[in-house]
Amino acid sequence: MAFNKVHHIAIICSDYQKSKHFYVDVLGLDIMTEIFREERQSYKLDLALNGEYIIELFSFPTPPKRPSRPEAQGLRHLAFEVDNVTLERQRLLDKGISVEPIRTDEFTGRKFTFFADPDDLPLELYEK
């Protein structure tokens, strides 16, 4: 395989407006394209981080729930690299987002912490 990079991450949410607010207004991702697909009763929102396409946020009328805890099989979490975990954790707390205490990666010595999106998808802040 000759992969260049990860192209995007697709997320299906249960409440489109709530998730759109979270990813755009709370996390600060930029909207590239927003489409409502009438035939599927589904939104598709393309989001960018620092100008780079990263997330497709989808809505569907009745998506089934997918367990993420305790340590369910499958995709574990989505991690965002940050310069300062302590500062970014506080910014999330200031916006009313519940964030776990900061931990240190035993192998790299770098700080990290977890929080969740409106559908309880585990998200991580990992210090550069």
Automatic annotation (TrEMBL):
CDD domains: VOC_Bs_YwkD_like
Superkingdom of the source species: Bacteria
Record's keyword terms, sorted: Metal-binding
Occurrences of domain VOC (ranges): 5-128
Pfam families (alphabetical): Glyoxalase
KW Metal-binding (keyword) present: yes
UniProt xrefs under Gene3D superfamilies: 2,3-Dihydroxybiphenyl 1,2-Dioxygenase, domain 1
GO molecular function: metal ion binding
Xref: NCBIfam families: PRK11478.1
Protein name: VOC family protein
